[in-house]
Amino acid sequence: MQTEFSRKVVLSVVKTYEDQEFNQVTQGATELSDLKFVDCQFNNCRFEDLTLTNVQFQECSFSHCTIANVTTTFSAGRNLQFEQCNLIGISWGELVIDKYSLVIDRLTNSLLKYNNFIGMELPNFSFTTNEILNSNFEDCNLQKAQFNGCELADTQFISDDLRRADFTAAHNYFVDLQTSRIEKASFSFPDVMGLLESLDIKIKADCKI
């Protein structure tokens, strides 16, 4: 059974949707192309295994949505907001329009898994309140970014600028100290000890003779 959203996609080739609300839409294993969404709201929607070709999302909000395993070509996002969403298998760097625009404007109480952030400008961005699992930040500007209180299991930071970033009470992250800058960043014990993993050194307990 087609949803209202899927019927619109079938009937429209090059189409702009502006200031519209989509509720409880389920779309999967299909290709969407030549679409533009501006100031739209997506609530309780589920998008899985989609291929997006020349699709743009601008100033859109997503609430209680699941977006998983989306492949993008010539597609972009700008100033998107996510609240209580499941975001799985997304490469955010592929959605960047230019280095002066943000793909994600706000991210709250969401689960991110198998996400990639590569070559992105994210200074001062707040990831607080989110879980970010099995994900990768590489060659990103994360100056003054806030990860405080985040669960970051198997999430790695490689060749990033983490100066003045806040990892207070964050857990289970891996930071490559040999490629990343961490001057004046904040960390908490005991997780800060994990920073030494990238240095190929051995730490031994004190031995009393």
TrEMBL record:
Protein name per Swiss-Prot or TrEMBL: Pentapeptide repeat protein
Pfam families, per database record: Pentapeptide
Domain of life: Bacteria
SUPFAM superfamilies, per database record: Pentapeptide repeat-like
